[in-house]
Amino acid sequence: MPPKISVCILACNEAAKIAHTLESARACPWVDEIVVFDSGSTDDTVAIAHQFTPRVEYHPWVDFTTNRRLIVDAAANDWVFILDADEEISPELSAAVAALRDDQFRMHPVITMPRRNYLLGRHVRAWDPDRIARLIDRKRVAWPQRSIHDRPAPTDGSVLNLAAPIYHNRYADHWNDYFDGERYEKRADALAHEMYAQGKRVGLLGLWLRPWAAFVKFFFLKRSFLDGSFGLLVAQKAAFSVQLKYARLWHLQQQKSSSP
Fold first, then answer.
1. Hey, which residues does 80 pair with through a beta bridge?
2. CA Rg, the chain, in Å?
């Protein structure tokens, strides 16, 4: 039987999706509380969240790692399940968590699961398994200093990998889920600064080869060609994302080198 678990959700302008997220959490018998941190929604996100939980608070956005640490620290329980506002706990995952033994929770302070991603209403098989660490004992993990892709690591014990998935973006079929210029810009900027801080640099060869390598990886090695024109779009999206990220890193290098 699982210990008491808090579900922690960060949200901003997710009115079209967050009800599915909250409903999936409320359906889990092991969920003790649901906490939502909103970072300034201008739609009905906050009103919808209040229909599912009394714990809805405002916190300004800093970055993924900082905001997730804040909401995890605010939870009533040490065991927390981190959920994005466009994700759902699948019935299979709910059952898998409910079936975990006490000794598994003692031995594994970090529990991962695959994320099943959807784009334009379709499952993106080329992105599988996209394994993420979302069920953690907050007292026995260390958080990396990263702005994106934060992955808490165990400080005591080991990682347990579950097979049942989280659903991501399952109910969206909008063009801006494929391309959103503002979101792309913010993500590329955050990733470029993160890479620069880690000592990574890019030159002419990298700017030319990396997008092609991303396309080959997803279209051929990850076999998105099996999905026809949709698979081609997935591979092109990956190549463009890589191009934008490294172009921003190159620009950042130029800015730093010309600074006094």
1. 6, 136
2. 19
Question: What is the CB neighbour count within 10 angstroms for residue 47?
Answer: 11
Q: What angle do CA 178, 90, 184 make, to 5 degrees?
A: 20
**Closest by Cα among 125, 128, 115, 124 to 165:** 115
pTM of the model: 0.92
Q: How far apart are CA 170 and CA 148, in angstroms?
A: 22
pLDDT tens across 117-157, in order? 999 999 999 999 999 999 999 999 998 876 676 789 999 99
Q: Give the CA angle between residues 173, 176, 177 to the nearest 5°.
A: 55
E strands within 151-198?
153-154, 159-161, 166-168
Neighbours of 98 (CB within 10 A): 12
At 105, list the tokens: 């929770």
